[in-house]
Specification:
The complex is a heterodimer of chains A (169) and B (550).
Chain A (H helix, E strand, L loop, with lengths): L2 H16 L9 H14 L13 H10 L6 H13 L12 H11 L3 H15 L11 H6 L14 H8 L6
Helix pairs in contact in A: 2-3, 3-6
Chain B lengths: L14 E4 L3 H12 L4 E4 L14 H6 L10 E4 L36 H10 L14 H16 L24 H13 L3 E3 L34 H4 L1 H6 L3 E4 L3 E7 L5 E7 L5 E5 L3 E3 L5 H8 L25 E7 L14 E3 L15 E6 L6 H7 L10 H10 L3 E8 L8 E9 L5 E6 L4 H20 L4 E5 L37 E3 L14 H20 L4
Helix pairs in contact in B: 1-12, 4-12, 5-11
Classes of the chains: A mainly alpha (169), B alpha/beta (550).
């Protein structure tokens, strides 16, 4: 298979992930709420956040596979979150400031703890798990990914020491 | 040899070894290459070097190598009900090679003082603080054997115990964390020395040198440069034609015959079926948590308190080494996620100093620790004055990941009756075996030593030029990978489980060799000593077999 055709397949896979016909485990409304919570935990600033990393797809995939048994807990958490919102509104429809205020009310709950943990997983775990799209999580922190091995110097201080003739031997 | 692997279950083999880790892998190699028939039981699967990767989520957070962690429970004292934990209290790998496959590979020898500190310092009330029945001098040839047989890189430090041969290869080049620790140590009048590793810096015995991928701690080595028994010993054992590695085989009982001798190993195979292997002798190398668990599970009418437990010391005296950490951020990038964890250590506080007002000693190192991988960094590496979500938190993660390291202290642990492994009365594992219950509370002196090292680590961080540093709260200890002391060796059958040659005081053809054999805890890196004990035990067992005394 040529490099170009692999790239084409990879591109179409990404496109499919960008516009899923349907989620594997989540309803579109629940997915929108999860995406909105994740986007307040790791917001988009001058750098990409949870939305750009496709963190919601990590949740969706996990609830269809390894974390199936946690789905109900999260759906109940979302129901609780939305119950306090006026006029049958949903979390995803609130302004970012209102979302932050609502999350601060529940930030010590098990539900928030789980969603926060899964947001971190979805932002940084290998892309095979559904999130960390185009490795935006790794790029944000300066983690250069998995290239097999690395060569010295690794950082500023060992380079500086090497320059001074101290190579650690 | 008349028989060859796979061995017939009904024909007794010479040795059934339970556990394929640091001790079991070495005993398997030594005994099989000496011509004995050996079956090694490993409850985990037979992962090969090429099966290991860099998946942080599955390895660190879903405990892929740790097995059935729901069957482990923890409590601080016997008045509490032990409960399952998100992290396994006994942190060991269920895979061929055991924890030597996933350990960080920091590799210190013990010193003379570790073996005879009780004589030097006197008793400590309320503890089982004792001397070892063997000395450093007696173990030294076996430390050297470990260096040269499994492959150890390093350079001698100013206060190391004497060695009869140099390291077979040079140490890892220094990383930024090591440069900074050394900078701090020099300012404070302390000494930073290169860290020895059970990781190759040069090709050795057909294995490649480290490629510096950064996935040592908790991960299996994908090239076989880490000197696990999986990479260094088990291939030699299998090549002997006398050794069968029986993976996915979970032992639940050692059976004894009418004469009170170990005769059979009962286990669940991969399909969950009960099987029994007849054997002439048993060597338990299942680690300091699983070894006492198995002996307690093997209770019978003849041995109502558990096998080899006439002393009552099976499971007692658990020592975990307390750990402290100070996280430190620097102005420029360290990129310390690359390469091995540790390249410099400070051993100025190794010896006990009675002027401190408490017993203990320890070592200090610098390593990425919580900044090894991005998820760990986000979950555990953030300073306490930053919110736990939102833009400010995100910016801190992004800024610090490449600029952060930890200065880590590890301490002695005192042997106490109240720190132990017992069978959980409720929890069971997926095979139906009683769960592993850990009861543990650091001795006051262990905590004091931890706090002392934490203070030294704060001073080192400041002297190294850290722009921001803070302690990571890790005391009291709630588990760990160093599982020591639970079937201690000793001359007196009333206060120890095995003799100086690892033979059970109660059962002449039952040997126990792993971290459970330890009498004292050392200063925080036990695996080198486990491996040295295993090479020594192999020589003693071969001699006993030759003399017909097993």
């Amino acid at each position: 298979m040529s490099g170009a055709s692999i790239a084409a397949i990879a591109q179409s896979a990404c496109t499919a992930r960008d516009r899923p016909v349907s989620f594997l485990s989540l309803s579109p409304a629940d997915a929108a709420d999860i995406e909105a919570i994740a986007a307040r935990i790791i917001p988009t600033t001058d750098t990409p956040g949870a939305s750009e990393a496709g963190v919601v797809h990590f949740f969706d995939r996990a609830f269809a596979k390894e974390m199936k048994e946690r789905l109900n807990e999260v759906l109940e958490g979302l129901a609780g979150l939305n119950a306090a919102i006026d006029d049958n509104g949903r979390f995803a429809g609130l302004s970012p400031d209102a979302q932050d205020a609502r999350l601060r009310e529940i930030e010590t709950s098990d539900f928030f703890g789980l969603v926060r943990e899964m947001t971190i997983f979805g932002f940084f775990a290998m892309s095979e798990y559904g999130g960390n799209k185009d490795h935006v999580g790794w790029e944000l922190v300066g983690f250069q990914g998995h290239n097999g091995g690395w060569e010295y110097p690794f950082g500023y201080y060992d380079a500086e020491a090497e320059g001074g003739g101290n190579d650690g031997e | 040899m008349a028989n060859s692997p796979p061995f017939d279950l009904r024909k007794p083999v010479d040795f059934a070894i339970i556990g394929s880790g640091s001790a079991g892998g070495i005993l398997a190699k030594e005994l099989s290459t000496a011509g004995f028939e050996v079956v090694v039981f490993e409850q985990g699967p037979y992962r090969k070097t090429s099966d290991f990767g860099h998946d942080e989520l599955s390895t660190v957070f879903r405990h892929e190598l740790n097995g059935d962690i729901g069957a482990q429970t923890f409590r601080h004292n016997e008045n509490e009900t032990a409960v399952a934990q998100p992290q396994p209290p006994a942190e060991y790998a269920q895979t061929v090679g055991g924890s030597s496959a996933h350990f960080t590979a920091n590799f210190w020898r013990f010193r003379e003082v570790d073996f005879r500190e009780r004589s030097l310092l006197g008793p400590i009330s309320g503890t089982n603080f004792s001397d070892w029945p063997i000395s450093y001098e007696e173990l030294e040839p076996y430390y050297t054997k470990v260096d040269w047989e499994i492959g150890v890189s390093g350079a001698p430090g100013p206060n190391d115990a004497p060695r009869s041969k140099p390291f077979p290869m040079p140490p890892m080049p220094v990383k930024s964390s090591g440069v900074l620790l050394e900078r701090g140590a020099n300012k404070l009048g302390l000494t930073a020395q290169p860290e020895p590793h059970a990781i190759l810096t040069q090709p050795y015995n057909g294995r490649p040198a480290c490629i510096k991928c950064g996935y040592c701690m908790w991960f299996g080595c994908e090239v076989g440069a880490k000197s696990s028994t999986l990479a260094a010993m088990i291939p030699l054992a299998e090549a002997s034609g006398n050794c069968e590695i029986r993976a996915e085989s979970a032992v639940f009982r050692i059976e004894t015959d009418k004469r009170g001798r170990a005769s059979e190993v009962l286990y669940y195979d991969a399909a969950g079926n009960e099987k029994a292997q007849k054997t002439r002798a048993v060597i338990v190398c299942a680690n300091g948590a699983e070894t006492p668990r198995l002996l307690l599970m093997s209770a019978s009418e003849r041995q109502p308190d558990g096998l080899a437990n006439s002393s009552g010391f099976v499971g007692r005296n658990l020592m975990l080494n307390a750990h402290v950490a100070v996280n430190a951020v620097f102005e420029e990038p360290l990129n310390d996620y690359k390469g091995v964890q540790v390249t410099r250590i400070v051993h100025d506080f190794y010896e006990c100093d009675e002027s401190r007002g408490f017993y203990g000693g320890g070592g200090i190192d610098a390593r990425p620790l919580w900044s090894t991988t991005p998820i760990l960094h986000s979950m555990l590496g953030m300073p306490p004055d930053v919110p736990t979500w939102g833009a400010a938190w995100k910016n801190e993660i992004a800024h610090n990941f490449t600029r952060q390291m930890s200065i880590v202290g590890s301490t002695t642990s005192l042997a106490q009756d109240s720190n132990n492994i017992t069978l959980d009365p409720v929890a069971t594992d997926h095979w139906g075996r009683p769960g592993l219950r850990m009861t543990y509370m650091d001795h006051d002196d262990d905590i004091a030593m931890g706090r002392f090292l934490e203070q030294r680590a704060m001073e080192l961080a400041e002297a190294a030029g850290s722009v921001k540093f803070w302690p990571f709260e890790n005391l009291p200890t709630t588990g760990g990978p160093h599982l020591l002391g639970t079937c201690r060796m000793g001359e007196d059958p009333a206060t120890s489980v095995v003799d100086r040659d690892h033979r059970s005081h109660d059962i002449p053809n039952l040997f126990i060799c792993d971290g459970s054999s330890f009498v004292t805890s050392g200063r925080g890196q036990p695996t080198m000593t486990i491996m040295a004990l295993a090479f020594r035990a192999a020589d003693k067992i071969k001699a006993a077999a030759a003399a017909g005394t097993i």
